[in-house]
Amino acid sequence: MLLIFSEEITPRIKYITQLIFTQILQVEILLTSNSADFKNSTLPKINYSFKKFTDEFYIKPNQIMQSNTLVTPTINSVWYNGEKYFFESSEDSILPFDPLAASFYLVTRYEEYTEKTLDKFGRYPVEKSILTKYNLLKKPIVNIWANLLAIKLTEKYPNFKFPKRNFKFISTIDVDNAWAYKHKGFIRTSGAILKSVAKGNLSELKSRLKVLTRTEKDPYDSYEYLDSVFKGNEEKIKFFFLLGDYKQFDKNISYRNKHYKNLIQNTKEKYSVGIHPSFASSKNEGEYKVKMEKTRLEKISKSEVVQSRQHYLQLKFPKTYRQLIKAGITEDYTMGYSATTGFRAGICTPFYFYDLKKEKITNLSIVPFQIMDGTLRHYLQLSVEDALTEIENIIHEIKNVGGTFVTIWHNETVNNKGLWEGYQQLFEKINKLGFEWANE
After folding, report:
1. Is pLDDT of 187 > 80?
2. What is the pLDDT of residue 285?
């Protein structure tokens, strides 16, 4: 048990202390605002207040932790052990910066509430993040700060032990387009053929005709191959299916299609299945569309759906997460960037969404991802060798803090064809490494 004192136990303090000490460091905490009880206690303890008493473990909090309004804070940089951090503390604090306030700022995505400049898809741009500006994006800095606090507490209280935290791995597949050519129906197939002819795209036409005449396998039909890679580790796999209506950015086949239904049902027999809320659901009538798409998946899979990941990683604070909560979603896997690898919220441990506008802890668990296939190939344009190096660096950072490594792949990117040549081997290497480390 760890005792933590603050003059006022705000919702922000309650949230971040639970995250750092209970969820990441896995120790029990007790919060108190009674200074006498704190001084008299024999428990290992932290004074997180604006006044130091004697020689206790002391951190002066940043003012942001006592606030209940959403205003852009003044951020001053602080150097510690060769790294530039933020939210200064005081000279008599155990650290020159406040790791609890800094962690709160990152995991709540405070900066995303106030940013007005977005990318072409309406998403928060990675270059605006403080982690990018401070060169911390490729480190699970919240977990690192938590470990730093554990080290400092152990120095102060040698008999206080923190449990070892084990590396975990979750491999996820987004099914945006179940098949490239099959099962599209007469109208869509005819239109696609005419379009290929008009554009002189004879290679695509030839491939489509071979698939339709069953002389060649559909390039997106990678499901048997995925089964072979995942064999023996099915509990670590999650599939997310797109079931929105056909639109510009939502081009999967109809949820009514019997082949698509069979695919979902067969997948559900082996793996965890979640909804992939459509691009359209991030626009008008989003709450209604998320609920509708979730209901479609529940009817097809004949089971309750509680997991999701936004198509195109559409994520707006607090709108998106409020919609998911109202739809009955309890786990979301959207937290990450399309444009680069790394740690969008600075953390590699699942955490609960804190609604800054309501100043409220919710029951929606956010599971961050760090690597996506499209990021490596399209945005960063990495060779297979460079992509492997990038991923291995991320994995080692996560393993060092006992975090959770989460990847995103798509059924169409593991076929070893065209732009994705060589990425199938990369996919196999990363999954093998992730499974081995998670099973140690």
Report:
1. no
2. 79
Alpha helices in 213-350 (DSSP H): 223-230, 258-268, 286-301, 319-327
Residue pair 276/251 in contact by the 8 Å Cβ criterion: no
Q: Is the pLDDT of residue 161 over 80?
A: yes
**Residue ranges per structural domain of the chain:** 2-156, 168-180+220-438, 182-218
The two structure tokens encoding residue 366: 């956010």
Token couple for 189: 């197939």
**Cβ within 8 Å of residue 300, ≥6 positions away:** 243, 255, 261, 264, 265
Residue pair 63/104 in contact by the 8 Å Cβ criterion: no
Per-residue pLDDT tens digits for 105-114: 999 999 999 8
Q: Where are the alpha helices (DSSP H) in 202-285?
A: 202-212, 223-230, 258-268
**Helices in 120-257 by DSSP H: which ranges?**
130-133, 141-156, 186-199, 202-212, 223-230
Which tokens belong to 374? Answer: 């499209």
**How far is residue 23's CA from residue 11's CA, in Å, rounded to a whole number?**
16
Provide the pLDDT for residue 71: 86
pLDDT tier, 202 (very low <50, low <70, confident <90, very high otherwise): confident
CATH number of 168-180+220-438: 3.20.20.370
Please tell me whether residue 253 adopts helix, strand or coil conformation.
coil
